[in-house]
Amino acid sequence: MNDAAATGAPLLEVTDLVKHFPIKRGILIDREVDQVRAVDGVSFKVERGETLGLVGESGSGKSTACRAVLQLIKPTSGSVKFEGREISGLGRRQMRPLRREMQMIFQDPYASLNPRKRVGQIVGDPLKRQGVASGSELRRQVQELLERVGLSSEHYNRFPHEFSGGQRQRIGIARALSLKPKLVICDEPVSALDVSIQAQIVNLLDDLQDEFGLAYLFVAHDIGVVRHISDRIAVMNNGEIVEQGSADQVCEHPKDDYTKKLLAAVPIPDPRESRERVRSK
Amino acid sequence: MSAAPLLSVSDLRVGFATEAGVVQAVDGVSFDLRPGEVVAIVGESGSGKSVTAQTIIGLTRANNARIEGSVKLNGEELTEAGDAEMRRLRGEQVAMIFQDPMTSFNPVYRLGNQIVEAIRAHRPDTSKQEGRERVIELFEAVGITNAEQRVDDYPHEFSGGMRQRAMIAMALALEPEVLIADEPTTALDVTIQAQILDLLEQLNRERNLATILITHDLGVVAEVADRVLVMYGGKVVEEGTLDEIFYDPQHPYTWGLLGSLTRIDRPRPHRLPQIAGSPPSLLDLPDGCPFRPRCPHEFSKCTEYPGLESRGGEAPDHRDRCWLTPEQKREKRTVEGQIGLEAPGEVRQA
């Protein structure tokens, strides 16, 4: 238990986060003519061991918000506190020790793994860089991780192209978990996968959460999946959070008009019920 | 719907010779499509659903492809039609729309001109002006506002949903009778998806357009389909009406697909029911039923592949490929009060 845990500060507290991208014109002298307000004053909290789902359509700013939280892009303004400590504006070097605590899982299991590296290197790289393990100890830890995410320790020397999409996503999860983070940001982790594989990955994330006490910031456009995995849901539209609440409350009793519209558009896999519904508008 | 079929596919088989061996991508697919009807083909990657669609419209005619069986459109055999004849039929009688409308248009030409070009390729005596007016009409019909200005836009000036509307407009330009839609809403946001589904439904109603909908999303199927084919490992494993597939599914794979859906209108289950393992490689299919390695109900008979038959007797057009008896199926498909696939002992990784 460190100080923050003792004082009850949330694991992650984001307040008034803003990320504007400038639109520039001109050849020699760049004039800023306007701004894209990708994230425009977003506030939310993630408690230890909890899952906050972030839903929204493309362009709503959900991925930009994630990147700004991790300081992968520099926020324009606002505060990001991790365990009570301000991390917004920290430099690369200052962020490095914190990277152990917060990791990310990406959408595309084909693009997010280096095709020239073996699985063992990919999963072991964070451990090596952070100086956690090396040599045979590194190998043992990586093999243990591979087995934990449903792969086999014999996969250690294989290349990513030898795996299916679902298995690759498992490799990405093993890499994110290698440093035993407290927070994992999942950016559309199942949307590139086949239907029968999606449920496997969602269940795996659920199990890992229980086992390691992870907190997830789970970003997706599929409201069904987000509702299944989340304790609370925040709905984003045009760079702002329009509604936030418990997963069941947001899905069953939405208050905001945009949330209502979004929920009404989700196809119901039940022919009798979908015949009675009006989809768009 | 008792009208004569517009399109009749029987025992279609498509194989591709590769260095690693012959990939039998489609293995004996048969179905009929009638005017105004929507037939959905559901499956995961590698199930053969897209190859089936592409073969109907003659897009899989490669040197290494072996196409057998028959595709009849208004009585005319398409698998034997020459390339020039196919080019004529494409657009005039069968049109196709794709998942990604950005890569389906040429980025350096104005949208209107691309569609006019397609019209003039088939109807050479159409003037450019007439073609342009036709495109404006089509844009209005598919719900593109400001059609007169927007015909002169480039593809990148359209949003994803609008681009998909433009692609539907292009597909409709020559008034085909059959539309093949390959994952038409997969790349779109849900609110836009709902609009496109409404549009497709309206076209079916107003123009009596027959549609083959290729998708992996059973939610989309429930919204628009009349009949459903479920494909797995290149074969149809179950086919029936929309209600038969959703409320009386016979094949364990269908149970698994239905069970793993997340529903926002129901209380959430503690665990999402899953199907173990992953879809098979077409180069290395198991003997007998290809779903066998993932199926918790596998028994001795499954090493022999069952034919696509109606086993219940009450609905002769509801067919499946599973050896279990109807009574066994009714008993086994109910998991915690809902249709689903029982959890296996251990998740087997391929």
Taking the sheet with the most strands of chain B, its summary is:
7 strands, mixed
- Which residues of chain B sit in consecutive blocks of at least 5 with pLDDT less than 50? 345-350
Distance between the termini of chain A: 51 Å
The helix tally of chain B amounts to 12
Provide the β-strand percentage band of chain A: 25-35%
Largest sheet of chain A: 6 strands, mixed
Q: If strands are numbered along the chain, what order do they take across the biggest sheet of chain A?
A: 6-7-8-3-9-10
Going by helix content, strand content and strand pairing, the class of chain B is alpha/beta
Radius of gyration computed on alpha carbons of chain A: 20 Å
- Helix-strand string of chain A: HEEEHEEHEHHHEHEHEEHHH
Task: Please provide a written account of the structure.
Chain A is an alpha/beta fold and 281 residues long. Chain A is built from 11 helices and 10 strands. In chain A, strands 6-7-8-3-9-10 form a 6-stranded mixed beta sheet, sandwiched between helices. Chain A has a 4-stranded antiparallel beta sheet with strand order 2-1-4-5. In chain A, a hairpin with a 2-residue loop joins strand 9 and strand 10. Chain B has 12 helices and 13 strands. In chain B, the strands form 3 sheets. In chain B, strands 6-7-8-3-9-10-11 form a 7-stranded mixed beta sheet, with helices on both faces. Chain B has a 4-stranded antiparallel beta sheet with strand order 2-1-4-5. Chain B is of the alpha/beta class and 350 residues long. In chain B, helix 5 crosses helix 7. The radius of gyration of chain B is 21 Å and the shape is globular. Classes of the chains: A alpha/beta (281), B alpha/beta (350).
